[in-house]
Design goal:
By secondary structure, the protein is α/β, with parallel strands linked by helices. The protein is 36% helix and 17% strand. The protein is globular, with a radius of gyration of 24 Å.
């Protein structure tokens, strides 16, 4: 038996269902009509950095330790998370230890690559010029054919340029996987297409034609992969989260400032938190000139808002892309009790400036719970001054949504905006609690991703099943290979997806008890891996 998993980062049934009904995506239509499918509930927050580790470990972030793209460190200076920070074993490591050959390509948060039977080619968050593949000979071979693990779109690209750029990467990914399929006698294979997420972020609201065109191309590439995998392969399609529109920004630090919990320094240096990527480039020099003249995104927005010219500014920005520098007001940490602590957007977090924990913490331990309760209460009260609608849908203490040994590393408060249609930000645009995006039409994440299963051991009823969770896929895949499920996984085997006459459906689910000796051995393995990584650097 073989299992092929295809990840479509950020894919949503909100697009796929109508397009399959219209016959636009014949491969996905075939899989859904001759298999089973359901929504796939993501992590809170529904973002790649915690979601993919939850997929690959079967555990919630409280057990694997990754909650965001960066570690918490005064809200701004945390390091980017990577595979070294995942404190739980991946299911392909379990497969590998049982002698199953695996091919894993372009899955986010897999750098640096771990040692498995088969190969890993790392994906999103791989640093430039890093060794992105295990074993080393695969890295050398892929370098020769021009493989590039990075696929982020540059600012200022037109819709057509975005489409062509991402399609080139997708085609190269498939070419690479087909090469590795021939190279290894594989039993498990996985590829993630990142372009579905990237194109939706950039073109969601006004460029559905380009997004559909990209999905069509991906649909054809998926057909090619399935054909090469063979008729005996069981196929799983999934996404780490869903997608939808961004209508407004919610300025979380301004909200905290109005509550008297966050204060700014009275004077700021002109370059503080300056978002200019390259001072030496022509655009960097132009931004520096604009900064000296006091032209920043914040000042431009404020003027446009006061003069009722915001819609004109949005049209101009869409037609003539100009990169305007961004500055942030410097926080006075000695007078601040809480701050925005997230890069997530519609699901965001707030950190209490706790004494003895934060670098310049001022909140006493006995005051912590009172400040936390006050913030949650106020978050649930705030309304959009323009519409009267609530801005925040849910707000949680970290203990409400996470469990496990690493909960203390989670942000103190996590909140979801109303229908996830507001993107939370730390920027201060004048005195606005909310603002409309200057670059309108972008998309952002939603809680429901996609799950589709198809193959010789899967029901061929075409039915939509009850919602699955992203943590359910790791134990389900281990069970498909007749392996024991680690007892500390949070996910459950999706038994209802299998054909009742299949061997997979008939065999009992077996569980593996994690002994203290195994926990210690795994901790030593992670420490050795971390040491090896630092030596390589």
């Amino acid at each position: 038996m073989k299992v092929l998993v295809i990840g479509l980062d950020g894919a949503t049934f909100d697009l796929i269902k109508p397009w399959t009904e219209q016959g636009e995506l014949p491969t996905l239509k075939k899989l859904m009509e001759n298999g089973v499918y359901s929504d796939l509930t993501s992590t809170i927050p529904p973002v790649s950095s915690p979601a993919w580790p939850s997929f690959m470990t079967g555990k919630n972030p409280g057990k694997h330790g990754v909650f965001d793209f960066v570690g918490k460190s005064d809200g701004y200076s945390g390091e980017i998370k990577n595979a070294r920070d995942i404190k739980a074993k991946t299911f392909w490591k379990w497969l590998s230890e049982e002698g199953k050959a695996c091919i894993v390509v372009n899955v986010p948060v897999t750098y640096p690559p771990e040692e498995i039977k088969g190969c890993i080619v790392t994906g999103m968050l791989t640093p430039p010029d890093a060794c992105y593949a295990y074993p080393l000979e695969i890295y050398e071979e892929l370098k020769k054919i021009g493989y590039n693990p990075l696929s982020e779109v540059k600012k200022g690209f037109s819709p057509e340029e975005i489409f062509n750029y991402l399609l080139g990467f997708a085609s190269k990914r498939v070419e690479t996987v087909l090469y590795l399929m021939r190279r290894f006698n594989w039993e498990f294979c996985m590829l993630v297409f990142r372009g579905t997420d990237i194109i939706q972020h950039n073109l969601w609201q006004y460029h559905k034609k380009e997004i559909l065109q990209y999905y069509r191309k991906i649909d054809a590439l998926i057909e090619n992969l399935i054909n090469k995998a063979g008729k005996k392969a069981n196929i799983i399609l999934m996404s780490d989260h869903g997608f939808g529109p961004v209508y407004k920004f919610f300025h979380a630090n301004y909200f905290l400032h109005k509550l008297g919990l966050l204060e700014f320094k009275t004077e700021t240096s002109s370059g503080e938190y300056l978002a200019i990527n390259d001072y030496r480039s022509s655009s960097g020099r132009l931004q520096r000139i604009m900064l000296k003249m006091g032209i920043t995104k914040e000042t431009v927005y404020t003027v446009a808002e006061r003069t009722h010219a915001l819609k004109i500014l949005q049209r101009m920005y869409k037609k003539f892309y100009v990169q305007i520098p961004t500055t942030g007001k410097a926080i006075d940490w000695k007078r601040t009790k809480a701050f925005f602590n997230s890069s997530i957007g519609p699901a965001a977090s707030i950190q209490i400036n706790l004494e003895s924990r934060e670098h310049e913490g001022i909140v006493k331990k006995e005051e912590y719970a009172r400040v936390e309760d006050f913030i949650i209460s106020e978050l649930l009260k705030i309304v959009d001054p323009e519409t009267g609608r609530k801005i925040v849908q849910d707000a949680f203490r970290r203990e409400d949504i996470y469990h496990g040994p690493y909960v203390s590393e989670a942000p103190d408060i996590v909140f979801l905006t109303k229908n996830l249609e507001y993107a939370a930000t730390d920027r201060i645009y004048g005195s606005s609690l909310v603002s409309e995006p200057v670059h309108k039409g972008r998309g952002t994440h939603r809680m429901n991703g996609i799950f589709i299963a198809y193959g010789p051991d899967i029901k061929n009823t075409g039915e939509e099943l009850k919602k699955a969770r992203i943590t359910d896929l790791a134990p389900t895949i281990l069970h498909m290979f007749s392996l024991k499920i680690p007892e500390d996984m949070d996910g459950k085997v999706l038994t209802h997806i299998f054909d009742p006459n299949s061997q997979i459906a008939k065999r009992p689910i077996k569980y593996h008890k994690i002994t203290e000796k195994e926990r210690i051995r795994e901790s030593i393995r992670r420490l050795k891996k971390l040491q090896q990584f630092h030596q390589q650097q």
